[in-house]
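Hi R.,

As promised on Friday, here is the backbone we talked about, encoded as structure tokens. Could you run it through your design pipeline when you get a chance and send me back a sequence?
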């Protein structure tokens, strides 16, 4: 039995042989072999080697996300993932985010398509517990997240507060075509966020109400870069000096934001330096 086991041993598990073979393999060939399609890998292979994966880009199909949901994938640093295509994809995607929450530094959560009424779709809501873990309730440790981009999704106002409170290292937040729903029951200001992106209507509401909540600017006292746009033709954009006054009123630092980026669409059209 022992003799048979030795005969069928995988030769590529022998360190000396691997070392000799590596001398005849170019870097380009090695990368080509390493960049395999996740969805085509067997579960047991992902379970054994998934912890080596650090970056996932554009994971948007159910087979891809099902493969990522393997417990072996647990040390991701950057993740770009579609969470709203279906209920099962929503569940699996947030399982991936939750499992990697202590190692993730950059997360982009998006919906591939925009629904007429996405606020009626549970799959379009951000699951805050997967992103903002409390060190008191988990052994995974505090969040390392520095960049969070949310596209074409919905986010409860309290969930936004919880993300800001739980992601202490966050420095850039982008809410692209994302609805912030409801009024917060508590208030948290994140001094670490330096760059913020959201629609003009959410940043400078004409009249803040109990259904829209306060301006999102009020949560970022030390903002240095603001990126904004206007998708609503009926919404009247304030004059630049009025916007500057609003920024000054929310900022705790002097000078207030040094970069303003205004756009009438998702494309950057101009940049105005604050004086």
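Update: got your reply. Pasting your designed sequence below so it's all in one thread:
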């Amino acid at each position: 039995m022992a003799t048979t086991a030795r005969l069928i041993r995988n030769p590529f598990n022998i360190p000396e042989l691997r070392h000799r073979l590596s001398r005849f393999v170019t870097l380009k060939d090695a990368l080509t072999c390493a960049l395999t399609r996740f969805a085509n890998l067997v579960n047991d292979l992902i379970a054994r080697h998934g912890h080596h994966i650090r970056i996932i880009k554009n994971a948007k199909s159910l087979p891809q996300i099902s493969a990522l949901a393997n417990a072996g994938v647990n040390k991701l640093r950057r993740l770009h993932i579609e969470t709203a295509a279906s209920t099962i994809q929503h569940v699996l995607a947030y399982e991936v985010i939750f499992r990697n929450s202590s190692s993730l530094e950059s997360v982009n959560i998006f919906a591939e398509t925009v629904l007429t009424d996405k606020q009626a779709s549970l799959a379009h809501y951000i699951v805050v517990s997967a992103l903002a873990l409390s060190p008191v309730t988990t052994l995974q440790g505090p969040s390392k997240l520095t960049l969070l981009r949310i596209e074409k999704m919905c986010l409860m106002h309290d969930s936004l507060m919880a993300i800001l409170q739980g992601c202490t290292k966050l420095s850039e937040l982008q809410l692209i075509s994302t609805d912030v729903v409801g009024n917060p029951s508590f208030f948290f200001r994140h001094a670490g966020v330096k760059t913020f992106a959201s629609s003009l209507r959410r940043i400078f509401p004409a009249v803040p109400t109990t259904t829209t909540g306060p301006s999102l600017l009020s949560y970022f006292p030390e903002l240095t870069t603001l990126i904004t746009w206007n998708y609503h033709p009926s919404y009247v954009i304030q004059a630049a000096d009025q916007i500057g006054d609003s920024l000054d009123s929310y900022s705790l630092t002097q000078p207030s934001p040094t970069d303003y980026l205004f756009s009438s669409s998702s494309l950057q059209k101009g940049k105005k330096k604050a004086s």
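One thing I noticed while checking it: The chain has one domain: 78-273.

Thanks again,
M.
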